[in-house]
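Its record is set out here:
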Amino acid sequence: MIFSTEWSEDLFLGKRSMTVRGGRSNLSYFKWAIAAALILSVGLGVPNNVPAEGPAVSAVNAKADALFGSMDSKGTTIGLGSITLPLGDQFGSQIDGAWGKVSSYVYDGVGGHIFWRDPDLGLIGLIGSYQELDNVSLIQNGAEGELYLKDFTFRTRMGYQYGDVDHGVFAKLGVKYYLMDNLTLEVDPEVAAGDCSLGFGLEYQPDFGILPGLAIFAEGEVGENDYDHWFCGISYYFGSKKSLEQRHREDNIDSLLPDFTKHLMEKVRHAEHKRDIVSPQGGEDEGEGEDEGEGEDEGEGEDVWREPPFG
């Protein structure tokens, strides 16, 4: 068996880990690095060919969310926050953070985006995120893109995931439809490390006069191995007053958290199963063995009279 040492790095968090694998090469990691470099070069080349009609981020803005619901039939409460910053006129960045509880387990995560965006055309950029649930980690690095066509937003995220979960390619291809400027519906099929799931949701901004940035949302996801989650909550967009559609295309990008949580829950599920394994028959077997042994010892210690043979 040939052993190779693999180093992996989180593009945004600076985390570095080493994994020793038998009989595997580093070729897949080199391919991923080359793919990321190509995506970056394409993203940087877009503004030269397609001049942006407006700034990538209209102004510094932020968003806060409170999420409640169920993840894999476990009560869930998570708080989230994002801050979006302009990097010149054509580029922007966003940092996402989250902390909460899934049943008694702590969930936390951080994510980052660097992107080029034209509010009338679309977005392309790089993403990286780190999520953890009950000390099970999920790291994803990749790229994202959005295309704006009237009241439709077509979006994708894809890349590579690793950590304590199954390693592999992840991809999400979704669509948002704005029924009104302040009401959107979305559908997001996704696949990661060979597992498929389907997400869907809605968001509505009531446009209250004293709370112009207040919005409510609901979302769900169903996947393989009987996984599902159902969330609802409230959001508040900090910034100038504008429609929900404008916020999504001029200010905030959808957070990377929580996302692809099915893979975290499967590992937690497996750990729960191992902890819950009890061998009640182990004690019984030992007791039975002791009883049998005692019986044999007593039998061997007794004086048994045998009738002498004839003759």
Notes: The helical segments are 27-49, 244-251, 262-276, 280-301. Residues 27-49 form the longest helix (23 residues).
